[in-house]
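Form P-L/3: holo structure prediction, ligand heme-A.
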Amino acid sequence: MNVEHGVHDAPYFVPSPSRWPIVGAVALFFFALGAALTVNKVAAGWYSLAGGLAILFWMLFGWFGDVIRESQQQQYGQQVDWSLRWGMSWFIFSEVMFFAAFFGALFYARSIAIPELGGDTLTRQLLWPDSQAAWPGNSAPTSTSYTPMGALGIPAINTAILLTSGATLTWAHWGLVRGRRLQLICGLVATIYLAALFLALQAYEYHHGFLDLNLTLASGAYGATFYLLTGFHGLHVFVGTLMLCVMLARASQGHFSEKQHFGFEAAAWYWHFVDVVWLLLFVVVYWL
Amino acid sequence: MKHTGPGWMIALLASMPAHAAEWTFQPPVTAIARDVGALHAWIMWIILAIFVLVFGVMFYAILRHRRSLGHEARHFHENTTVEILWTLIPLLILIGMAWPVAKVVLAQKDTRNPGLTIKVTGQQWLWQYDYLDHRVGFKSRLATPRTQINNYDGLPIQRSPRYLLEVDEPLVVPVDTKVRILTTSNDVIHSWGVPAFAVKQDAIPGYIRDTWFTATQTGTFRGQCVELCGRDHAFMPVVVKVVSKDEFSRWITQKQAEQQKVASDPNRVWTRAELMQHGEKVYKDNCASCHQENGKGLGPFPALTGSKIATGPITGHLAIVLKGKNAMPAWPSLSNEDIAAVVTYERNALGNKVGDELQPKAVAAARQ
Amino acid sequence: MTHEHPHGDHDTVRGWRRWLYATNHKDIGTLYLCFAGLMFFTGGIMALGIRLELFQPGLQYWQPEFYNQLVTLHGVIMVFGAIMPAFTGLANWMLPLMIGAPDMAFARMNNWSFWLLPPAALLLVISLFVPGGAAAAGWTFYPPLSLQDGMGMDFAIFAIHLLGISSIMGSINIVVTVLNMRAPGMTLLKMPLFAWTSLITAYLLIAVAPVLAGAVTMLLTDRHFDTHFFKAAGGGDPVLFQHIFWFFGHPEVYIMALPAFGIVSQIIPTFTRKPLFGYVSMVYATCAIGIMSFTVWAHHMFSVGMPATAQLFFMFMTMLIAVPTGVKVFNWIATMWEGSMSFETPMLFAIGFVCLFTVGGFSGLVLSIAPIDTQMHDTYYVVAHFHYVLVAGALFSLFGAVYYWLPKWTGYMYSEKLGKLHFWWSMIAFNITFFPMHFLGLAGMPRRIPDYALQFTDFNALATVGSMLFGLAQLLFVYNIVHCVRGGVGKASACPWDGANTLEWQVASPAPHHTWHEPPSEAIVRRGLVAQALENRHE
Ligand code: HEA
Ligand code: HEA
Ligand code: CUA
Ligand SMILES: [Cu+2]
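OUTPUT (holo model):
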């Protein structure tokens, strides 16, 4: 750790008062209010939801704009750089824990709930005589029948896509640290292309699941964990893709230097995190 | 700070044996309850000893080592020996506690070889008791009248001595018999507990959980639902009557006979009047807690008066009762007669006048 | 907005913008503390509503539905609105001062963390007025009851999402500040203990706030999108929610206890004029609690019907937590031993904390014994337990902290006389309110009920009287603060406590808007560390 040895290279950068946080708070208030109303089918909720989202985007543009400007003006010393690294790492840790909740739910449903509902237990004898302990498949005591999603096919292809995208991103990073701007940009473009492909395939997979397999959110614990895990992962891929797009725009504007490009690295860390989550998903959701 | 010390506690405790029921465990009537009481007493002594020791030292320091007495601070700040000691000693105390406690846990969990098995189903806001070995079942609900409870105008009210702890029909069990209780629920989580037995078991909807007790004494023992279950959580007491084995077998035979009379030939065609009369009872027992006695609903619970389903095709009406929907529980536990009656009742009372009726046979067919 | 000279004094904008656009840790800390105070009173008024109904048997004031909403909101608001923001606010105000940093690591994000709280509070308040009223399933939101609730539950769910985002950002800020912004010479094992406990607390929060977010998200989809996480009919299990909730919930209770330990570990050495005893073991104990708190969650679920092995595992792990907590208690007492003690208000609250927190810890230990918990679970014994650790624990430590640092914040001394009155009054009223609840619990009175059987009448009446007295005492607290802000009983020097040696006492009182712009020199840091016996004179 650096500080103990006196890495206070420059006065620490403390931003001046900014309107963005309060704008962000207002945005999330309307977003949350709108969401709460919308799920209850109150029509006005939509306006609040959309308004909140719009304000949120405005805020993100403004805020990140400020950050990029400050960074370009060389206001971030080495200590700030460390802060950003620590901050991003802990943020990713929090994301890991968010997914952990859903993986935990999957584990519990599979290993504890289903065996009790369908095994040789009093629960089954007295309450669910027709239930069977099967996973996936129609494991739930009362749900309409559906076909589980196979691991081969789209999920396997998507695994390959995401793994490749991790490689192309690393390749882009090499380009950046070696001062090869073209390699950086090509690498980023390729990564974003793969990301978009991944999302498109996942959208197709959902479409297929809903229409052909009768696999919906209502398909018992399997359907719920399947859609929430892959859905939140997809959302993270989407956000990661936006980050990469911003990085691409910045790269083509000539931002980043060989030594100082934490913005890029943060996006890359995030991307690799999303990658790892997918691997876990692929194994425990699709495969096992 | 003297009033927080043990002195205060002891003074309070000393003044209370006269009202034991108000401030400590109910007298135990099972071996487990006695064990639990003993464990608790034993651990309280340990705690009290630690408390006196630790805070004796602290208050000594507070009284003597104060600046106003001119006491100079000594700047020691470490002593590995005492630090190890006061890590190890509590650890040893805890290990000492662990073994006897573990034995009670294992005994508590051992529900094998019961002499009698009763399924207890929680439901907003009453208990359904089913004697699985005897095919007898009934509901048990609060007997305290609402007029004793609702007192929004603050007038003086005469409350019965068993206020909130009395039911229309208690659970009856034989003495000296291992009774296994299987809990489950129709709607939300409830918890079935009787302090005198040291028994408390959550009733989880969709799952069977179990516990057991062997009452060693006859008498009536009271508890309450101990898991927040909505509006009338405070109003679903548990009352268990422990009777001699003879009395129990007499009671159960009589109960069986009664229920035989009601349970009828599955193919019998019921008259409209019979259906309506029985339906009203079933409705009040099961449905009124949510849909209200007048059928007008409340909050998230829809009105049945004029409801699309209750005045629409009868198959849809039957289906929602059998299968449930969202917060509406499924009612496969009701008999065919009950369901036929309640559906008929809902369609032709509560302000509805559809005019059709449902026969038990049709319910039996729909169950397939 | 201009950014040419980021450190100029031009960034002290005035008027309302100062608060809405704040990036200064002291301003944000003040915001947090004021918000927490407001929420404490809101939650407190709800508590009085609860106690009022329980004054006598029978339903007098509220319908049971509304009573349940009161209990739920009281729990949620006190935990997420009062105690946690108060600790975050203290960390904001004091951490940079104590470790010699110019501000928090992410000053702008810091403001966002704060400003997410009022919207969340607003959602909770609005929810009282939507059809069906506020959430009424208890602060633990157990399904299927929470699936039955009306729209108010969705408001609560989204409020919790906002609170979670706020907590995560606030905690990242604290962790990074502590890890990356310390003054030269202040290694991790030389930080004030409050920095340590804030660090571990923040780490716990980053780990569990997302888990809670996940849990309530599943509730939301179960409520509105037909999923079956918590419904047996679809292969789910209501108990699954309890596991996820308490995986968050138990670390959460330590999130409300560890900063209190930190505060007390600052106050006691100051007023005993002696270094903290066993600094290193305090740090280890804090870390041990931080780790062990992840392995005990199911002690809240002893009566759901777990297998005996699980019952035993969680019971033993829970009992073990008494060991590191005991180490802390013993260290505090050893610090007092042979000290030169004086008893200003912060010290009184610290001592009150040690006594009553221990009582609460002991009742926790009793609860941890699974067979005994069979009797106590969901009775007033549990209510007594957690108010001892939360009110006499977390809240008392906060009172102590406020009195301790008020001179630094305002530049004036508060009235010691009123402070002491506040302490003794609170102490007595607190015990009148909550001690009888142990007996109610032993005798079997369930919690979360608006009406009770007749044998519980006397203690309930007593508790209600106590709670009113306790509430009145808090008016004294507010008066004392306002009085102090307006000049108090005179100006405070930079270091009004002669036994205080941490860095915050090296800057003027009131603390200037910007402090430690230049990191404190190694000499200053060393002087403080030597006085705290964290560094040898001759090293
Ligand atoms: C600040 C918050 C806080 C803290 C610090 C604690 C600390 C502890 N808690 Fe508490 N607890 C809550 C807040 C807290 N709790 C809340 C809010 C609930 C209810 C939630 C709800 O249902 O709504 C709850 C509920 C709760 C339960 C569930 C009860 C039930 O619902 O049935 C249990 C059971 O094990 C428990 C145990 C403990 C234990 C063992 C500790 C230990 O950490 C205590 C350790 C401390 C000591 C033991 C004292 C000092 C030690 C010594 C002097 C050393 C020597 C001692 C010995 C060797 C004995 N708590
Ligand atoms: C986190 C901290 C916290 C704090 C500080 C408190 C503070 C208090 N709590 Fe709280 N409580 C909880 C956390 C907390 N509680 C939780 C988590 C639950 C569980 C919820 C659930 O079951 O879901 C609970 C549940 C709970 C219950 C159980 C309800 C039930 O189960 O039915 C009761 C009952 O007495 C109670 C009482 C009080 C009282 C009297 C105070 C007092 O200390 C409050 C004192 C404050 C004030 C009184 C306000 C300030 C003063 C004024 C506004 C001045 C005006 C006053 C007068 C004129 C008198 N609380
Ligand atoms: Cu049923 Cu509480
Ligand atoms: Cu706990």
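COMMENT: Residues C 41, 44-45, 47-48, 50-51, 71-72, 74-75, 78-79, 83, 138-140, 383, 387, 390-391, 395, 433, 447-449, 467-468, 470-472, 474-475 surround heme-A (ligand 2) (CB under 6 Å).
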